[in-house]
Write a structure and sequence with these properties.
Length: about 350
């Protein structure tokens, strides 16, 4: 039985990967998560008693703790997802993004290198370090430009994107200099069940059903490629086992949409599902409110995922229309979880500690 160490496994994408692995793999899974505002054990409540699953509440900035984890659990594969990941938060307070997304990655790479250099034979042959990144490292894309490929130049615009770009460079350097067997994936915007409520799609759903304004930056003409999170989990599973060492793979949904069109689509789904309107609201669309754009807002991201399709045979299974309806239905049925997450985030911002 192989052992897979997933950092950030209580977060949105990490928990989707762990749920996928429990169902579709025979591996043992070690979830390394410090359970900040974006990590919640409820995301894994259906499998937390599985004997193949173990949670370790550890911060990747803590090098001695990381060394202990490698020694204790002896992982065959590390899938690194733990990161500060919200652009708006990175603009308001970039320091923690530098600390976690750069220094934390350095610590994890060094712990992995120390572990790898002591391996021999088959254990050394099967070890992998899979770093999960974002398309935002490539920066802004003009409306008529070709989508990002694995050879696109890096041009990050936000502190978040710059920190992830820095991490990508560190991973490549550790592969080139030290021979650490690494893989990198860069994904487009994810959405789906268990998405943190401050992100665009869950925010629109929750604000709409609560009768609150639905904020849209500027005219909402920014374009993103949308990837259903369970499709992403399938891609990560494929790469971590079959990816070519030293390679990177772009993972996208082939679903480019303007932000304003994403918002109106969600409102359309809510109307079609006949979700009751809040008091004083005639149409969910009437809640859409245009607000001042954020600094350095990239106009367009788009992913060329042909490399992973050709080499590993992965393709997304969900269309945006099917995925967004599944997502809306999930959030309509999980209001208690959303409220608990929002309350925990408020307590953490106020220095009271999170309990959700």
């Amino acid at each position: 039985m192989q052992t897979v160490m997933v950092t950030g496994g209580a977060g949105f994408i990490g928990s989707a990967l762990i749920r996928h692995l429990i169902t579709h793999d025979t591996c043992r899974i070690i979830n390394v998560d410090c359970l900040t505002y974006a990590g919640h054990t409820a995301t894994l409540q259906d499998i937390d008693q599985d004997p193949r699953y173990q949670l370790e509440q550890v911060d990747i900035r803590d090098r001695p703790a990381l060394d202990r984890l490698f020694s204790t659990w002896q992982p065959d594969i590390v899938v690194h997802l733990a990161a500060e990941s919200h652009v708006d938060r990175s603009i308001d307070g970039p320091a923690v993004f530098i600390d976690t997304n750069i220094v934390g990655v350095f610590n994890l790479l060094e712990a992995a290198r120390h572990w790898y250099e002591g391996l021999e034979g088959e254990s050394r042959e099967r070890f992998r370090f899979h770093h999960v990144s974002t398309d935002e490292v490539f920066g802004d894309l003009s409306p008529d430009a070709a989508p990002f490929s694995e050879t696109s130049s890096y041009a990050p615009s936000s502190p978040y994107a710059a920190s992830k770009a820095s991490a990508d460079h560190l991973v490549r350097a550790w592969q080139r200099t030290y021979g650490l067997p690494t893989l990198i994936t860069n994904c487009s915007n994810n959405y789906g069940p268990w998405h943190f409520p401050e992100k665009l799609i869950p925010l629109v759903i929750l604000n709409a059903i609560q009768g609150r304004a639905i904020p849209v930056y500027g005219e909402g003409h920014q374009i993103r490629d949308w990837l259903f999170v369970e499709d992403h989990a399938r891609a990560l599973h494929r790469v971590m086992h079959e990816g070519v060492i030293g390679s990177s793979y772009n993972i996208g949904g082939h679903e480019e949409r303007r932000n304003i069109d994403v918002v109106t689509t969600i409102c359309d789904v809510l109307e079609r599902l006949e979700v009751p309107h809040p008091e004083g609201v005639t149409r969910f669309h009437d809640l859409i409110t245009h607000v001042a754009d954020r600094p350095g807002h990239d106009r367009r991201y788009a992913i060329d995922a042909s490399h992973i399709e050709r080499e590993l045979g992965w393709r997304p299974q969900e269309s945006f229309e099917s995925g967004i309806e599944k997502t809306v239905r999930w959030f309509l049925n999980h209001g208690d979880w959303c409220q608990g997450v929002e309350n925990a985030d408020t307590r953490q911002r106020q220095g009271l500690g999170a309990t959700a």
